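Checklist before submission:
- one chain only
- standard amino acids only
- sequence pasted in full

Submission:
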Amino acid sequence: MVGKSSGFVSDKDIAGLPAPATGNKIYYGTKVNGFGVRVTAAGARSFILTYRIGRRQRRMTIGSYPAWSLASAIKEAKELRKKIDTGIDPLGEREQQRDAVTVDKLCDIFIEEHLPKKAWTTQRDYKQIIDTYIRPDLKHVPVADVDYMHANKIFRKVSKSGKKTAANRVMSVMSKMFTEAQKMKLATINPTKGVEKNDEAKRERFLDSAEVTRLIDALATLEDKQAANIFRFILLTGCRKTEALAAEWSMIDLSDGTWTKPSHHTKQKKVHKVPLSAPARQLLADIVAEQGSEDVRFIFPAKFESTKPSTTQHQGHRVNVKNQWAQVLKSAKLKDLRIHDLRHSFASFLVAEGMSLALIGRLLGHTQAATTHRYAHLALDPLRAATERVGTIVSAKSGSSNVIDLRKELK
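Returned file contents:
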């Protein structure tokens, strides 16, 4: 449906244009010939330019509102008009550009321009997903031709291989890639939209007292002493593995007993200062003594200089303890335990000591209360113990010599 000329002069006017009952309607402005706003029945608004090249009428979308302001859309329309007046078809140019850019090229652009903004571990994981799952199936397909069927095919393929969580991650990375492609006007849709992801069960793996003892004993016998200290450091501080590996001595104040993590080292991108326990300070003091008087930047420096592109960017700190962790698990006879579960265990120890979730969240560096709330159910045991003590006191005060154990009675 084509509308009449409209005198919209501000963004407020654009927002106030009425939506049609069905389909879409175009309201033309007066600033640039053919410039208008398309409004759909759902209320979506986008700036368009209608023009002729020879005998052929063309209509191209400039951008959606409010991502584009009226002023910026008018400026773009004027630039497009200059091209049209010289015989250039801007929509044809855009279509040729989209057809020329394959998914393989989009992957390169995404890695070069978008990933450097992410943490190095995220960069590593994204690259692995792109090279393992996205490039092989879509390498030669034009970005503009990729649709839901392509994305869903990859998703089902990965899911059927038994990697349901990985399938979800592939869709997340692919979605981010095509969001960037839309910004560059290489794609008009995000093909992952509508793909129903697999259900993921939240992991709740914590070490009990017996497992902690076996873990500590296994660390004492690990041949790689540096790796053992990394695992001890994580267990004593509750930090993330990446934070431990990249920790620098300049962040540590042993006299004050604090660790100040700079914003670029934390997941929440904020400075995070935490106190260090006496055992954690002793561990660091032992590491200092072992390193000697050498000017060492990292607490856990790399043992050798790597030639791999994925590790040389880390400027000298340890990046991989995967094999050492496997050895520890085997020695301690522990199953289904990730390094990250040491962080969860640290939180569970605090809960067992009756610490509040708010305090635990501050120690772990959580910015969302919901993130810490996963440990709420663990707080029931200390609460139950507290109520049992109150019950005993009240019963004693009331003169009753018989304390009824309701758990036994209910059985």
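Reviewer check: The chain has 18 helices and eight strands.
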